[in-house]
Amino acid sequence: MTKIIVLRWGHRIRDERLTTHVALAARALNATGMILADVKDEKIQKTINSVVKNWGGSFFLEMGTPWKTALSNWRTRGGVVVHLTAYGENIQESDVMQRIKATHRDILLIVGSQKVPSGFFSSEWTDFNVAIGNQPHSECASLAVFLDRFYEGSELSRKFKDAKLVIIPCRNGKNLVSKNLEKLKIT
Amino acid sequence: MTKIIVLRWGHRIRDERLTTHVALAARALNATGMILADVKDEKIQKTINSVVKNWGGSFFLEMGTPWKTALSNWRTRGGVVVHLTAYGENIQESDVMQRIKATHRDILLIVGSQKVPSGFFSSEWTDFNVAIGNQPHSECASLAVFLDRFYEGSELSRKFKDAKLVIIPCRNGKNLVSKNLEKLKIT
After folding, report:
1. What is the spatial distance between Cα B33 and Cα B74, in angstroms, rounded to a whole number?
2. Each residue of B81-115: pLDDT tens digit?
3. Which of A33, A48, A94, B63 could disulfide-link A89, Cβ–Cβ 3.0 to 4.6 Å?
4. How far A64 CA sits from the closest chain B CA (Å)?
């Protein structure tokens, strides 16, 4: 299966919750991990470690790598770089998703912020600029739609290895089961 | 076309950016408006007004309505209430989306936070509990996937009425056009 790693650019400490949401969405929708470019934020690391420990899987968070280093390394290893931006090719109206899939290569998926480096829009650094609609947007929302469309929904049926907590879906109430299949809470 | 209005529950002032992202995602993906339940936050109102003024459409933000009042009024007027939650029926593995569509009724879509009122899980207040995967998640990401699947992508081709700013999608760079079709910036 094609691996997708998210590169989060433009994180500021006051964005902690937003970046945490980007990481949670990435994990829930089958990304392999996330690189927090240029900065480190231990609070986010702690949150993600705790989620992975309890809910399973092997989602990783790498922090502090300069974005140019991350992009260069990725391309050297043969991966493609996709930049999510409202200015890019519309995922619904163009064939950009087919062209990305046709590369059959792992993807570094850049999720930016309001003012991103102009290099993100240039073929010097990125291979595709993709818009989840050409309107002002949330990077967290754009990421989610991209992953759901790329994996065609299969990501939502995935089981997470070594999970201590598992939700049993239900029409009403909550059904959360611990590792030993003891019911923790039903309300 | 079925109208979807988002009800954002659990906003705290420190969540300003996150709630703004929920509103931007809602607007970009074809929701009619958003109700910020129980609290008011003028900063968000200002941001959304500015986006609508420049980028068009008629997305509205209503603030301060108690959630019980909003839900009661909605059901009285014949609408259905859908609650997005990791505990709900999996949108991929169940037929919940078909059942929602089969109602042919407008939707109030609750986007919560970590600790939501237990009433959200009860048929006393909501009609469907829907999970965008049963993992810890971002409400902004869940909202985006729900809207993209509900409108089947058509929301991403929509033109916004009275827009002063329009993006012309392109493979590289930015192409932003003003109301009078003067190019503002190409980089």
Report:
1. 14
2. 999 999 999 999 999 999 999 999 999 999 998 78
3. A94
4. 23
